[in-house]
Amino acid sequence: MTAALSAPARANTAPRQIRWLLRVHRPALCAWTVLVVGLAATLLWLWGPLTDAAATGWHQYHARCWRLTPCRYDQDAILRYKDLHQYTTVAVLAVPFLAAAWAGAALTGREVETGTARLSWTQTVSPVRWLATRLTVPALLVTAGTGLLALLHHVVWSAGYHRIDSVKPWDDVPTFYSGGPIVAGLALAGLVLGALIGLLLGRSLLALCSSALAVAPLWIAVHMTLPHLWPVATSVSGRRASPSYSGIKVAEGIVTSSGAHQPTSACTVDISPGCQALNDRRGAVGFYTDYHPYSHYWPLQLATTGALLALAALLAGLALWLVRRRTTGGRAGGTAALGGGAGTEAGTGAGAGAAV
């Protein structure tokens, strides 16, 4: 076994590890660069020429086609804007799934499966520093790229809102998630989650599928938690009307004679004699709706992003603890191996140790 590295040598391993990481994962880096640059260029095109052309087309439509007579307007510009806006939205929302799948398959799963990770630990760098390098560099690239795309998507939405009829409102689910820092937080959490799954499974293909699928329940949990991360606004009405609101509805129900709000999802307005009789028995004097208006857009985005960053830090700490625990156990027992590929990896690690 090689002797322990000196302090200067250990200090120089970090830059070498980063260079080696970028060289080994150069295809993924190139693909990520092409994706970010291509989407950014498309979003800039949408923001400028396509927004103006589509807005002009809609103006022509409203000015000339309000009667049942033949009219001409730039329908091609409207359809082109609509299609590209939908495609870029889907592409931005797909980034967390891509980051998780790549991290599980290539960042940790493949190196554990082939034994490359254990070879690095015995010759050049400690397991904890090895994992920290693999998480830090991709995390910076993924977060910066996704944040840029989300910013451009929000700028495109802002330029077309109220000018183009096909632009969705701010509380539309795809529009909300693709136009703020939440999607960058999801991409970072997905990256760390994928790396952790790769360490646990130790099989690149299995980790790829599992990591991508794991982002779906994460996103569902975020969607269910998000409305409760910021205080809601409340709209109240009497029995003869329903509360007026605009935004993300959180809860609704009846207002009792004591002023208490009683949540319910049935008969929140007297739309029928049956509902009227039910609300009479409930003692309802009005109705209420808890919701988030547009002024809560950025507080919701930032609060949810903060929660995702905390989750990513927790997952990273769990992955570091897992590596430290398993490698310490492996040194004590002499036979432990990371991941599920114990047989092939243990043999590869033993051969590498003998060669050293």
Automatic annotation (TrEMBL):
<feature type="transmembrane region" description="Helical">
    <location>
        <begin position="205"/>
        <end position="226"/>
    </location>
</feature>
<feature type="transmembrane region" description="Helical">
    <location>
        <begin position="300"/>
        <end position="323"/>
    </location>
</feature>
<feature type="transmembrane region" description="Helical">
    <location>
        <begin position="87"/>
        <end position="109"/>
    </location>
</feature>
<keyword id="KW-0472">Membrane</keyword>
<feature type="transmembrane region" description="Helical">
    <location>
        <begin position="130"/>
        <end position="156"/>
    </location>
</feature>
<feature type="transmembrane region" description="Helical">
    <location>
        <begin position="176"/>
        <end position="198"/>
    </location>
</feature>
<feature type="transmembrane region" description="Helical">
    <location>
        <begin position="29"/>
        <end position="48"/>
    </location>
</feature>
<keyword id="KW-0812">Transmembrane</keyword>
<keyword id="KW-1133">Transmembrane helix</keyword>
<protein>
    <submittedName>
        <fullName>ABC transporter permease</fullName>
    </submittedName>
</protein>
